[in-house]
Amino acid sequence: MTEDMPETAIATTAEAAEAAALPRVHEVHTDPDLAPVDVPEELKKAAQGKSPARWAYERLIMYIRNFEAQLDNEHEVAMGFAGGDTGILRIEGMGYFDPDIVTFYGADPTGAKTQLIQHVSQLSVMLRALPKNVDQKQPHRIGFRLARDLEPEAEPTKE
Question: Which residues of 16-28 are buried (b: 16+ CB within 10 A; e: fewer)?
Fold first, then answer.
């Protein structure tokens, strides 16, 4: 049986298949006070009907939001990318193009406008904390804004 269905439960084949298809997240950290990953309701549903791009996009949002929740008021989230010389991108936006492209918008450390377009099979992201710009009063928190956009009743963000 699955983690969601105890061994003593009687399940139909369809229930067992559905439980096996539901996404799970499991993490262990050295810091016992570190909050567990907060999985939004939208991501607790099966991935059926979602393109690989949408599925990757939604899970990246979850990780970005949880990473930002651990930052102080002097830092913002940025991404580093494995492979090549793409470097670091201060995240200002994110999107996807079905069926298999995820794109990141932002600025590099020099402030140059930057966009990374990546196939989901090549996706390898490192989240980093960068100091916010000195002229900003508050750090930008893109993860929470992206997560709001996932909510079923939410209208797509157009700012």
Answer: eebbeeeeeeeee
- Indicate the residue type of 112: A
pTM across the whole model: 0.69
Residue 157 buriedness (CB in 10 A; 0-12 / 13-18 / 19+): exposed
CA distances from 134 to 68, 74, 131, 138 (A): 18, 9, 8, 10
Residue 139 contacts residue 73 (beta carbons within 8 Å): yes
Helix (H), strand (E) at residue 50: none
What's the average model confidence in pLDDT over 36-60? 79
Answer whether residue 134 shows pLDDT above 90: no
Query: How would residue 17 be classed by pLDDT, with cut points 50, 70 and 90?
Result: low
Sign of the CA dihedral 82, 83, 87, 90? negative
The structure tokens listed for 90 are: 């201060």
Strand extents, DSSP E, the chain: 75-81, 88-97, 101-107, 113-119, 125-131
Cβ atoms of 50 and 150 closer than 8 Å: no
